[in-house]
Amino acid sequence: MTSEREQRGSLPFDEHVVQEAWRVLCPAGKDVLTRSDVLRTWRVFDPSVTLDDVRVMVGPKGIELDDLINILKDKSPQGFDPVAEAFQFLDPEKSGFIDADTLKRVLSQVATGPSCTQIDSDDIRLLIEALDTDGDGRISFEEFAAIEIERYIPSTAEDSKSANP
Questions:
Q1: Which long-range contacts (CB under 8 A, 24 or more apart) does 152-157 make?
Q2: Model's pTM, two decimal places?
Q3: What confidence tens digit (pLDDT) does each residue in 69-112 have?
Q4: pLDDT digit string, tens, across residues 118-148
Q5: Residue 139 burial (CB < 10 Å; 0-12/13-18/19+)?
Q6: Are the C-beta atoms of residues 138 and 101 closer than 8 Å to each other?
């Protein structure tokens, strides 16, 4: 029997999701991410990453959103599962669960841009309560994978126009 997760497979490339991630991760709403910006963000995922690692991917002038979108569109790996990658990011200890302390620590490290507000314990509690369907006080991969992320990404004015001609 195939699980719902296996049936769903990897998600298609979504430019709107990349734009929203850029808005959150790009400090001060800049148009270009510098090597140091990429290094700071990447180190949240992997503390051992070096500036030399970043130099391989990002030129001396940095990377613009349109360039990143084109790279992701053209090079999106077959079978890449962004839900599994996102869960691994939020579960750096690889425990198989996301608990409140880890969630707060990881989100606080990432949410540094001007449009980001400080994440407090109430925010974390609400997230855990909303996603923890079995009531154990933490989020499993199955609970995380069940999130319909599209519902939580604000639509753009362009999306609204096409939906309501």
A1: 153/16, 153/17, 153/20, 154/20, 155/16, 156/16, 156/19
A2: 0.51
A3: 877 776 555 556 778 878 888 888 889 999 999 888 888 777 66
A4: 778 898 999 999 999 999 999 999 999 888 6
A5: buried
A6: no
